[in-house]
Amino acid sequence: MKMSQVLDCDAVNCIYNKDKKCHTLAVNIGDKEPLCDTFMTGASKGGFDDVIGGVGSCKVSECSFNKSYECMSTGVHMSIVGDHVDCKTYHKK
Asked: What residue stretches are annotated with the DUF1540 domain (predicted)?
């Protein structure tokens, strides 16, 4: 099994975002909503330049891509919405 990748993310103020790509090993997605629980802002950047983020867990049980708290999509798109980041690949069952 292969981890779903974060294909792109427009949250450029996130510490893990470089050139609209996620550079942490894994993100965790929400609870009742498809929020990126890993989103953080700060003065310095984190993560690894040679890593493209994956979805470590998904707690959004009503997403059609969620199976046993794992994302079964081949890849996800993340986007800033107000003061948080959402998984835009979310699709209600």
From this structure: 8-39, 58-90
Chain-centroid distance of CA 33 in Å reads 12
What is the tens place of the pLDDT at every residue in 8-64? 999 999 999 999 999 999 999 998 899 999 999 999 999 999 999 999 999 999 999
Q: What is the pLDDT of residue 32?
A: 85
91 within 8 A of 64, measured Cβ to Cβ: yes
Joined together, the tokens standing for residue 53 give 């983020």
Closest CA to 79 of 26, 22, 41: 22
> What does R_g of the chain's alpha carbons equal in angstroms?
12
Contacts of 59 (CB under 8 A, 6+ apart): 28, 29, 30, 31, 69
How far apart are the C-alpha atoms of 61 and 15, rounded to whole Å?
27
